[in-house]
Amino acid sequence: MEIAVIDYKGGNVQSVLFALERLGVQATLTADHDTIRRADKILFPGEGEAASAMQELRAQGLDKLLPTLEQPFLGICLGMQLLGQHSEEGDTELLGILPFEVKRFAADSQHKVPHMGWNNLQRLRTPLFEGLREEDFVYFVHSYYAPVGNYTIAEAAYPAPFSAAVQHRNFYAVQFHAEKSGPVGTRILQNFLAL
Fold first, then answer.
1. 165 CB neighbour count, 10 Å cutoff
2. Of these residues, 49, 89, 115, 179, which one is catalytic?
3. Are strands 161-168 and 3-6 parallel, antiparallel or unpaired?
4. 177 belongs to the catalytic site
5. What is the pTM of this model?
6. What is the pLDDT of residues 105-139, one digit of tens each?
7. Which residue among the candidates 89, 115, 142, 177 is catalytic per the annotation?
8. Residue 10 to residue 76: CA distance in whole angstroms
9. For residue 54, which phi and psi values (nearest 5 degrees)?
10. Distance CA 23, CA 75 (A)
11. Annotated catalytic, 77?
12. What is the pLDDT of residues 148-182, one digit of tens each?
C-alpha cells in the first residue's frame, strides 16, 4: 500500500510519519503530483496559519490537485480546516472541498484560546471511529474550528459543540491530533488505513 503525506511545509508532519511508522507503515512525504495521484491513501497533516498554508499549496499547484483526488484522504488539524470554504484566520479562501466556514473560538473566563489539551468525542459516525466509544478522549491544539453541520462525523465541545471530525465523499478529516492521541488516535489511523 502506497501512502502519501502531503508536503506543504506544514508543521507536525514528522509526528504523523512516526505514528505511521509505529503501525508498520512506510509513507512518502511529497508534493509531487504524480506520486500523490498514485497513492492508495493520502494524509494531509498540519499545524500553522491558514493564509501561509494556502499560499504554499497554491505555489505548488496542490490547491488544484487535492480537490480532484478520489482515494481515501485524511486531513489532520490545520489539514482539516483547509478543506473548508473560508477561514476567519487572515480572511483566507480555502480549498473549498467541504461546505464550512472556519471560525475563531471566543475566549471567556473559563475557556482560553487556543483550545489545548484532552477533550472527549461525541456523536461518532462512520467507519473512521469503529471500535471507539462515545466520550473517548483525543488531543486538541487549535484556535479555530469548523461549526457542526451535515458533514460532521464527530463532535467535541469548547464550550459549544464544534466539528471534531468531518467527511465528504472520500475526504475525512479530524481537528484533533490523532498521532498524539494515544490508543484512540492509533485506532483512528488504523481505521483510516483500512478504508
1. 29
2. 179
3. unpaired
4. yes
5. 0.97
6. 999 999 999 999 999 999 999 999 999 999 999 99
7. 177
8. 11
9. -65, -35
10. 18
11. yes
12. 999 999 999 999 999 999 999 999 999 999 999 99
